[in-house]
Amino acid sequence: MDANTPLNGANSARPGITELRLSAFRTHRGAAFPLGPLTLFAGASGSGKSSVLQAYEALARLGAGDDLEAAFPDPVACVPEWAQADGQGRRGFRIGCTVDGPAGPVRLDLAVQAEPELRVVGERLTSGGRTLLTTALRDPGRSCVQAAWHTAGAASVTRAPLPDDRLGTALLPLRVAGKTQGQLQVLAAAEQVVVALRSVFACDPQPHRMREPVAAGDGRLRRGCDNLAEVLHRTRSECAKRHARLAAAARVGCAGMVEELAVEELGDGTVRALLGRGGTRGATPVGRLGEGELRYLALALVLLTGPGVLAMEQAAEVPSAYQALTVLADGFDRCLDPRQARELVSLGTEVCARGHVRLVGAVADASYVRGVDGVTVVDLVP
């Protein structure tokens, strides 16, 4: 695919974020983190691991069309403590990313004002040494920014106001006509960034909410994985191969004999998941498992399923062949013993190597994965 061609052409490359920049965000200053297919941020408490994933998820929400308030529920907390207010009392933060794909590397950088009110004050989209979009807050009294995007037609740029509470890049496909080569390049870059950002599932399994039977519904796994049994009920009937792979993972990560991962329909219309023990041993409801076992099962399920089984909004207008799901897992190794953590990483490298899934996680200790092929470890220091 030519760099000027929008993403609806035929190309096997899937857009993915290869660098996350926290120029000024919480405890981070001038930080640029490389991201591979499977990236683990490691460090002690207070080193900023959760902040990295928070910034990634915020960009993802903005790429999906959310406003700043939804992406940053507590914006003042995102402002670095060392950031000084200007003469008008304004303080903010800056984040960005690089997305690789058919259009080549595309950089997105965003400056956000958190005080005295939340708004975008500047955004820049660049590719191949060319600035494709810039926005700037020209008039603080108006709820918009002045945008200029590359045209390469009769006029070199097109200027127009954009809302100051949205990501301008995500709005470009609705604003750019695509009539000139310059406009096509802008569209290709913007679409590549939006596809990569929207294909994100933030996952934080909550074992205490996974123990009770759940009502059967649409079978889409929620962020806290509290409806694990409902999703297993769906995957068991829809994809026997993946379900068998998940059962195999359960044999490694759960204590005792595990012959199968079953689901029982109860008389009140709810379902519960069971570990089939084989022979006369019967089955163990997953509600009786330890916290580590439940988190292990939930994370394995996320890695083995995909967007169609996860409660996330896909870029429906883009064929799945051009999308790669990115799983964000804060506390990836929380409650896990070394055996479970190693098995999850092994499963992660297996699925990430196929190109359909990427994983970004935060761990307290990465000693068990250093030197493992396919794993990028980023060490953070408090």
Please give a structural write-up:
With 382 residues, the protein is α+β, with helices and mostly antiparallel strands. It folds into two domains: 16-199; 203-313 and 327-349, Rossmann fold (3-Layer(aba) Sandwich). It contains nine helices and 17 strands. The strands form three sheets. It has an eight-stranded antiparallel beta sheet with strand order 2-1-4-5-6-7-8-9. Strand 13 (270-276) and strand 14 form a beta hairpin. The longest helix is centred in the middle third of the chain and has 18 residues, at 181-198. The radius of gyration is 22 Å and the shape is elongated. Residues 1-12 have low confidence and may be disordered.
List its salient traits.
382 residues; disordered N terminus; five-stranded parallel sheet; alpha+beta; 29% strand; Rossmann fold
Number of domains: 2
Largest sheet: 8 strands, antiparallel
Record field, number of beta strands: 17
Gyration radius (Cα, Å) is: 22 Å
Average pLDDT across residues?
A: 89
Strand order of the largest sheet: 2-1-4-5-6-7-8-9
How would you classify the helix and strand content by structural class?
alpha+beta
Compile the SSE list and pairings.
Blueprint: E1 16-25, E2 28-34, E3 38-42, H1 49-63, H2 68-71, H3 75-78, E4 91-100, E5 106-115, E6 119-127, E7 130-136, E8 144-150, E9 157-163, H4 168-175, H5 181-198, E10 200-202, E11 214-215, H6 228-238, H7 240-253, E12 260-265, E13 270-276, E14 283-285, H8 291-304, E15 325-329, H9 338-352, E16 357-363, E17 376-379
Parallel strand pairs: 3-16, 3-17, 10-15, 15-16
Antiparallel strand pairs: 1-2, 1-4, 4-5, 5-6, 6-7, 7-8, 8-9, 11-13, 12-13, 13-14
Helix pairs in contact: 1-5, 4-5, 6-7, 7-8, 8-9
